[in-house]
Amino acid sequence: MGGIMNMYHPTRIPIGSGFGHKQTPLGRRAVHRVRMSLREEGPSVAIVGVTGAVGQEFLSVLSERDFPYRSLKLLASKRSAGKTLTFENRNYTIEELNENSFGDVDIALFSAGGSISKKFGPLAVEKGAIVVDNSSAFRMDEGIPLVIPEVNPEAMEGIKVNNGKGALIANPNCSTIICLMAATPLHRRAKVTRMVVSTYQAASGAGAAAMEELEEQTREVLQGKEPTCNIFKQQYAFNLFSHNAPILSNGYNEEEMKLVKETRKIWNDHNVKVTATCIRVPVMRAHAESVNLQFETPLDEKTAREILSNAPGVVVIDDRAANLFPTPLEVSNKDDVAVGRIREDISQDGNYGLDIFVCGDQIRKGAALNAVQIAEMLL
């Protein structure tokens, strides 16, 4: 299962611990008592792709948020089937994913790649499961909600476990989630007409194998050896390069176009202008993004800072005097998205533009946490 699998440990960490999260410890304990009492009444949950980096994070987030599952089924490829995984003091045998995996499943959390999702997602829905899919397979399909709970919860209105109907809900791309967590509260106030995004994306976005390759390459380069390049075609350690997604005919790569298309769908605004440049940087986990916003109505930086300070799932780190702003390292393993460098775009007159810098953990809010939050809304 690799080094990432061995790194997993279901330690309970208070949500937003040490990160200014808005939920109080008292409130957290109260939630814990209620959820534990409802556990026998909770849904049956399956995790598809449990041995991957996001699959492992699904387990961590379920535990930390005391998700009230009645039963848990761990699914992976034939290669991992039969292996044992300990979670919340119980031993589980990983099962091979197949057509018969979902007969008794209420909620299925998928993170096993687009081809797996396309094959097994509809099968799970036919069996009555609600699928929360982390791949790009269904994001742009008409009629399938693309959801960030803090941004557009209304998109999945009426979808509930107790309805007895299967459904498919798509988890947006990690870079889109991290961007829109910060941009949306400002969009609600002044309406974004154009957004320019430059991303600095970590190895975590390419999965556990990429994280391991970055670690291996770092050792090799420091020892004067030729770096091993299996996941990426070029040296990753001590380097950066254009995102490895395929380049399209318009010159944008697929990752960049996801930001364009997904933003329009999530905001339900097909007229908003979005352009993006996505870069892979040698950071282990957590993405950073430079975001330039142009508004329909004026929005000054002081008001923007106040809006972001009160936005759910967002924390402001914006200390100009100390030159202290968000970093990928600081948000790693954290739930909140951090935003700073909040400043007027001096190329535009009249407070019609802002620049912000955003960092968020790709595996947490960019993937597993967002999916589990969606699952919570199904209860």
UniProtKB/TrEMBL annotation:
| One of the protein's GO biological processes | methionine biosynthetic process
Q: Could you say which EC number(s) this protein's record lists?
A: 1.2.1.11
Q: Which residues form the active site?
A: 174 (acyl-thioester intermediate), 287 (proton acceptor)
Which keywords fit this entry according to its UniProt record?
Amino-acid biosynthesis, Diaminopimelate biosynthesis, Lysine biosynthesis, Methionine biosynthesis, NADP, Oxidoreductase, Threonine biosynthesis
Q: Which domain of life is it from?
A: Eukaryota
Domain Semialdehyde dehydrogenase NAD-binding, by residue range, is 44-159
The record's section on SMART domains has: Semialdhyde_dh
Copy the pathway line from the protein's UniProt record.
Amino-acid biosynthesis; L-threonine biosynthesis; L-threonine from L-aspartate: step 2/5; Amino-acid biosynthesis; L-methionine biosynthesis via de novo pathway; L-homoserine from L-aspartate: step 2/3
- What one GO molecular function would you report for this record? aspartate-semialdehyde dehydrogenase activity
Q: Which reaction does it catalyse?
A: L-aspartate 4-semialdehyde + phosphate + NADP(+) = 4-phospho-L-aspartate + NADPH + H(+)
HAMAP family from the xrefs? ASADH
Tell me the subunit arrangement: Homodimer.
Q: Which family does it belong to?
A: Belongs to the aspartate-semialdehyde dehydrogenase family.
Record's protein name: aspartate-semialdehyde dehydrogenase
Q: Which organism is it from?
A: Penstemon smallii
